[in-house]
Amino acid sequence: MLFERYPAIQTALRWVGSAYLLYLAWKIASAPPPNLKAQTHSIPFTFWQAAAFQFANPKAWVMGLALMAGFLPESGQPVFNALLLAGFAEVVALPCIALWAAFGTAIGQWIKSDGAWRAFNITMGVLTAACVVLILG
């Protein structure tokens, strides 16, 4: 409804989102390979730290806003519809995240050299930048 009334907002979001994706693509493609020989171990977030981080995570906000803007029904109870949509999103997200994590673990087992890491980062950067074609196309 907001985008129907003010289509310039949607256009602006497309351009800003595309610019952000291109920035991320550059950061990914130009990222140095990790120091695989380092013996330092970082402490991962606790469950509560990770949950709190989602409030500062721009990707989570963009995903949530896009989900609501694109799929929230206009009829019915807004709170019920939003909760139902959030529930469906979690049913889809959990297996996708698990698959993503498994893929990352498997890729990490194969990429052992600096050159392989650079090639992987460049490939991921190019694929991220290619998403802009879908957004603006």
UniProtKB/TrEMBL annotation:
Segments crossing the lipid bilayer: 12-31, 51-72, 79-103, 115-136
Statement: the UniProt record of this protein carries the keyword ATP-binding: no
User: Could you confirm whether the keyword S-adenosyl-L-methionine appears in this record?
Assistant: no
Q: Name one Pfam family in it.
A: LysE
Classify the protein's membrane topology as the record does.
Multi-pass membrane protein
> Which terms are listed as keywords in the entry?
Cell membrane, Membrane, Transmembrane, Transmembrane helix
For this protein, the record's InterPro entries field holds: LeuE-type
**Lineage top rank: taxon:** Bacteria
Q: Where in the cell is it found?
A: Cell membrane
Q: Mind telling me what this protein is named? A: Uncharacterized protein
Q: Which species is the source of this protein?
A: Vreelandella olivaria
